[in-house]
Design goal:
Layout (H helix, E strand, L loop, with lengths): L1 H47 L8 H31 L3 H16 L3 H24 L4 H22 L11 H4 L19 E7 L15 E2 L15 H10 L10 E6 L5 E7 L14 H9 L3 E5 L17 H20 L9 E11 L1 H12 L4 E2 L2 E5 L6 E7 L19 E7 L10 H6 L10 E7 L32 H20 L6 H5 L13 E7 L3 E4 L16 E5 L3 E8 L7 E12 L9 E6 L2 H7 L6 E8 L10 E6 L2 E6 L34 E6 H5 L12 E6 L4 E11 L1
Parallel strand pairs: 1-2, 4-5, 4-6, 6-9, 9-10, 10-11
Antiparallel strand pairs: 1-3, 3-5, 7-8, 11-12, 13-23, 14-17, 15-16, 16-23, 17-22, 18-21, 18-23, 19-20, 19-22
Length: about 750
Amino acid sequence: MHWKNHIAKFKPVIKMITQFIVGIAEKSWKGAAIGAISAIIFYLIVIGTYFKTGISSTFDALLFILLIALILLGIVLVTKWLTIIIRNIAPLFIAAFVVIYIITSILPDSFFSRPLILFELLCGGIVGFALVRGIKNVISISLIIVAIGANCLAIYFLSFEGIDNSIAVTDKYWNQNYSSVNFQDPLQVGNYKVNELTYGSGYDKYRPEYGQKVAIKTLSVDATPFFNQSSGFRNYLRKTYWGFNSKNYPINARVWYPSGEGPFPLVLIVHGNHLMTDYSDNGYEYMAKLMASRGYIFVSVDENFLNNSWSDDYNQDEVFTRAWVLLKHLQNWRTWNKTKENLFYNKVDMNNIALIGHSRGGSAVAVASVINKLKRYHLDAKQKFDFNFAIKGVVQIAPNDPYHPQNEVSIKLENINYLALQGGFDEDVFWFVGNRVYNRVHFTDGEFHFKTALYIYRANHGQFNTVWGKKDSGIPDSWFMNLKPIMNGDEQRQVSKLYISAFLDASLKDKKEYISLFKDYRQGGNYLPKEYYINQFEDSKFKYIADFEEDFDVNTSSIKGCKIEGVNLKTWRENALPFRDDDGSSQQTSGVYLGWDKKDATFKGASQYSIHIPDSILKTLQIDPAKNLFFFICNNKIDLDSLDFTIKLSSKNGYVQKSFNSFRILPPPLKTKLTKIDFIYTIAKDKPVEKVLQYVELPFSEFLKENKQFKLTDINKISFIFDKTSVGEIFLDKVGVN
């Protein structure tokens, strides 16, 4: 045993060092204690300057001193008691406990590791106590069984999927009456034969499809002016794995394309953040093959090298770079389309381009559409851009919205078609961030553009990508997530295929018949899985009577001259609609909160909210039977499932009115419990419902059925009369005509 001899040589040195440390501790502990106590007393005095009762400063000082004295005394007594216990515990246990505490402080997921250690400490203590008493003792056997049973229950809890506490879709909701519009099935496989290839650097270390098997070799790009990751230990680890860093990022992608002459519209899709070694770019093949068969060149971009690893995560600092790399891909496509020797020569319709992004990729495509129009980098104008591609549409799937070109200034999409998809059981981005981007999309050039969004109740974050799957986080987080309510992955992807296919056809092939689907999800009833959906829609032709963005005056409208009146309302206030995120941040749209309660004796008569429209304004709206009254609405009472009221149009010579439910039945509050229990791991614990606005379109022709003599051109008041349900509260936004 040579190793024992080597250790024996160091024993005198170890003993000397130990004696030195103990000697210092014995001589200096009093001074150290006095120093520590002095520091804490000084700190408490500083804190005490904020202690105000309002009685007097002397009283405040005495009361604060008394409270601190009691706290210090309590700590001393508890410490003394713990010291007695610790003295009787083996030093090895103390050392192990301290080491474990330090390790759990350094390593991630302490929410899991610390309870686990305490749990196993307790179980181990029970077993140890039982063994000391004797294994044949009945009490000992019982204690061992309890410890084993507790561990079995813990394993079962961590492994089972959870409880399906989602809201079941009612027949009343799913079988609503509506005027259907015929359009070609967006899910129908097209007539084109689909081909596949990859392009890339040709030197990928792990993926032959981006190594020797690439069909087209590409040059790497230098991203260091925007995101310098060429130094530092963690970046060294990344370079060791990939073989490159930000000085030479590769341009890699998978391509599905139709056989034929073309030219074909070009669509790029990019994944978001995931474990970089679990490659994400092949997760959209289900969508790519469909769209290629329908006449699109569909490209799934590889940005796995910007994803998180076991050692680090760029924490969204890389979003601009994700966007910039996308535009460098488009530069290659522009070159290939002009190069006779290239497979794609004259086969790419560079006048019709769309970008699709998932998660952080969703943020990237929005940023890319904005910097696409810039000539220089805003943080370093020496960096010139030469992009200016004809990007006609942007799709964000479960996106986040972290990027601010300047402090607290968000990007704004302009004059572009936009679609957002979001799941209610998203356990990563658990609030509808895409709604905020939606509300910042503006149309200013006089051309036709539209924006739309869809909230899918039981969809999650990951199943839009087949690689990511049902678990929106890795272990151990996923052990605590409630996976049972999440919809089937194939069904979730069917929704995304349906909407993205229709969006691309409407945006890049001018098939406007699909607009009806974006206005009303019920138009897709033949193709959609049975589920709760909430949709939003606006286009550049909308005329707004009240969007509640103009001022803080509750009696004024967006159009000057219009007046607003409220009668017998329990709640009447204008404010922003919040998300259910941890900070309750704004959805970046303001509206009016309207509440009523028939049981409240202080209100006599019906509760109503009216917008008065003068003749001069009425002429600009040009109301006729072919047009619609529209507004956005959500139920603001999460404990009330049903909601109905009367909508009344008035003129000098009469009125017409219809119930809201004759047009639309809103879903009940869509509650979600995202974790199994809230004790250890919680997501949106106190905010089980995301308030999502439903776009509602009411044809004026339906009102005329109540009174054919009523003149739409004479409307002078639009009223919301809350007479159908005894109590309730709504959020109302963007009232107008289209």
